[in-house]
Amino acid sequence: MKKPTQLILALLSFAFLGAAAAADEAPVTITEIFKRDHPELADKEVVVKKIVVKPGAEAPPHMHPGMVTGYVEAGTLEFQIKGEELKVLKAGDIFFEPPGSHHLVAKNPDKSVTTIIIAFVVNPKGAPLSVPLEGHDAHPKK
């Protein structure tokens, strides 16, 4: 009886470890580090997110319902919103996205260094942080 139980426990352990490893392998991870109601605007909330972009990874084109101010804490970020030129941001740089802007490029071009971004967002209450943009197969680079 011990052998089947040990085998089942071993398989469950590998399954949980595999799921944890898969989560660690996500190309872009977003962690909420702060959230509260806006102190002056009842229909808004203030959110701070930590975004980790693995080497060579990129986020698909998207739109933010709220305004975003981002700080590149580490690494390099290729960044472009619709109507603006492609920018290459380095650690210490700041970017701004007006509400509703189309974020076309968010890529870590480095092959060995992880990019870390801290995003300060004033978002409509209950709205998602971002919404995928339809019809964007490739990132434009002007």
How would you characterize the overall build of this protein?
InterPro entries: Cupin_2, RmlC-like_jellyroll, RmlC_Cupin_sf. Keywords: Signal. Residues 52-112 form the Cupin type-2 domain. It comes from Brevifollis gellanilyticus. Pfam families: Cupin_2 (PF07883). By secondary structure, the chain is α+β, with helices and mostly antiparallel strands. It has a single domain, classed as Sandwich (Jelly Rolls), CATH 2.60.120.10. The protein is 16% helix and 45% strand. It contains one helix and eleven strands; from the N terminus they run αβββββββββββ. It has one helix at residues 2-24, and strands at 28-37, 44-53, 58-59, 62-63, 67-74, 76-81, 87-90, 94-97, 102-107, 115-124, 131-132. The strands form two sheets. Strands 3, 4, 6, 7, 9 and 11 form a six-stranded antiparallel sheet that branches. The longest helix is centred in the first third of the chain and has 23 residues, at 2-24. The protein is globular. The relative contact order is 0.23.
Short overview:
The protein contains one helix and eleven strands, in the order H-E-E-E-E-E-E-E-E-E-E-E.
Poorly predicted residue ranges: 4-23, 137-142
- For the report, how would you describe the main beta sheet? 6 strands, antiparallel
Q: Using the coordinates shown, work out and report the CATH topology.
A: Jelly Rolls
SSE-based structural type: alpha+beta
Could you give me the name of the CATH homologous superfamily? Jelly Rolls
Q: How do the SSEs run, as a string of H and E?
A: HEEEEEEEEEEE
Q: DSSP strand (E) fraction?
A: over 45%
- Compute the CA-based radius of gyration: 19 Å
Count of discrete domains: 1
Write down the overall geometry: globular
Overall mean pLDDT? 84
Q: Please identify, by name, the CATH architecture.
A: Sandwich
Count of runs of 4 or more consecutive helical residues: 1
CATH level 1 class label? Mainly Beta
- Count all strands and give the number: 11
Give the CA-CA distance, first to last residue: 66 Å
**Helical content (DSSP H or I, runs of 4+):** 10-25%
